[in-house]
Amino acid sequence: MTIEKDAARQEKLAAVKGMNDVLPAESYRWEWLEAIVRELMAAYAYRNVRTPIVEHTQLFVRGIGEVTDIVEKEMYSFEDRLNGEHLTLRPENTASVVRAVTEHNLLYDGGKRLWYMGPMFRHEKPQRGRYRQFHQIGAEALGFAGPDVDAELILLAVALWKRLGLADWRLEINSLGQPAERAQHRARLIAHFEQHAALLDEEARRRLHSNPLRILDTKNPAMKMVVESAPRLIDFLGQESLAHFDALKAILDANGVPWTVNPRLVRGLDYYNLTVFEFVTDRLGAQGTICAGGRYDYLIEQIGGKPAPAVGWALGVERVLELVKELGAPVPLPTPDAYAIVPDAVAMPVVLQVLQRLREAGVRVQMHAAGAEGMGSMKSQFKKADASGAAFGLIFGPDELLRSEVSVKALRDGSGVQTTYPLADVGSWAATLQSPASN
């Protein structure tokens, strides 16, 4: 029994398939993206909201749609063993945001612009840019009915692509109209597919009477002709729906944003009406959609709130970062401003006191720490200082400490200039340093 326990204790555990660690060599890219997003959301007056990762399963069944792929096949759902509640790891966040807005009556004094970031969960086959735990950043404007807010959200995404240095994308737009218009189109769509039933695959036949619009989104090349010849929803739109769509296009044109109408763009969630859109790239293969969204004017009522219009989008963080790498967009690598070189561990109480003052002054400092072999030589410490990317080395040598001083050596400008400062006045050096941390 002891041998078995020892063997079990030594077994190496790994992450769940499709749920990945983000290590420091990559996490700085995430932090860079997140910082840009925070700045942009503030510029557009969107405020952050954070919802639980676990929600009642019924929220997504009711909100996303019972016959969608997400609800039928992809959700991580379970029964709470303590109280029997049916719970789900959130597969997307719009339904959660709407639930939060409804539960806390956030629309009582007018519309709200909200944004979020965080992990989502879907049980899919892991592939490039598509994982079982994936991350989204999203923006939602609730309580606003006009196409101007649809356009504002698209312009917000375009501004983000510019800040990230991404140019290889295209914007596809469509209008799904209103429920009555979709009902007319649905009847014609079913009739069309029934006439070509022999050409439908098993999945399409299953969806024919429950959700025929989703057949238009098929990836089966054998069904391409029957889908392309299907009635187009845009041909069933009334005057108001068309006016909304035309107003959106006019605003995009006025702002120089190129767009293409994709009449087969239906999105994978049932709650959309009127405007839907996707930002697509050919750089990522089959996983080319990097950001998508649309208007969902009936979802708030569907989840139990008072009727109110809404529109939003979400982007896939992993896919966007893949595109950043693919296009070679520059991502600044975070480096310390200074590296503290400490030949003798005895000096650590004084060194840490000085470093704390520097950090409080906004200087980013990496301290050399003792390893198994002790502090190491000055030469090895300078090598580590150089590898850290620090602009300066702070030398706390025995001669300096005897004089209550620290030497500051330039490591990056090629000059190798070394200046000495009193320990008590190290802040005077910090004041001369234009640190990125304080910008």
Tell me what the structure shows.
The protein is α+β, with helices and mostly antiparallel strands and 439 residues long. The protein has two domains: 245 residues, Bira Bifunctional Protein, Domain 2 (BirA Bifunctional Protein, domain 2, 2-Layer Sandwich); 101 residues, Rossmann fold (3-Layer(aba) Sandwich). The chain is 38% helix and 19% strand. It has 16 helices and 16 strands. The strands form three sheets. The protein has an eight-stranded mixed beta sheet with strand order 1-5-6-11-10-9-7-8, with helices on both faces. It has a five-stranded mixed beta sheet with strand order 13-12-14-15-16, with helices on both faces. A three-stranded antiparallel beta sheet has the order 2-4-3. A hairpin with a 7-residue loop joins strand 15 and strand 16. The chain is elongated.
CATH superfamily of the largest domain: Bira Bifunctional Protein, Domain 2
> What structural category do the secondary elements indicate?
alpha+beta
User: What is the rounded Rg?
Assistant: 28 Å
Give the neighbour order of strands across the main sheet: 1-5-6-11-10-9-7-8
Q: Give unreliable regions as ranges.
A: 435-439
- The multimeric state of the shown protein is single chain
% residues in beta strands: 15-25%
CATH topology of the largest domain, by name, is BirA Bifunctional Protein, domain 2
Mind telling me the CATH class of the largest domain?
Alpha Beta
**What profile does the largest beta sheet have?**
8 strands, mixed
Number of strands: 16
**Share of residues in helices:** 25-40%
CATH architecture identity of the largest domain: 2-Layer Sandwich
Mean pLDDT over all positions = 90
| Terminal Cα span | 60 Å
Enumerate how many helices there are, as a single number. Answer: 16
Shape: elongated
The number of distinct structural domains comes to: 2
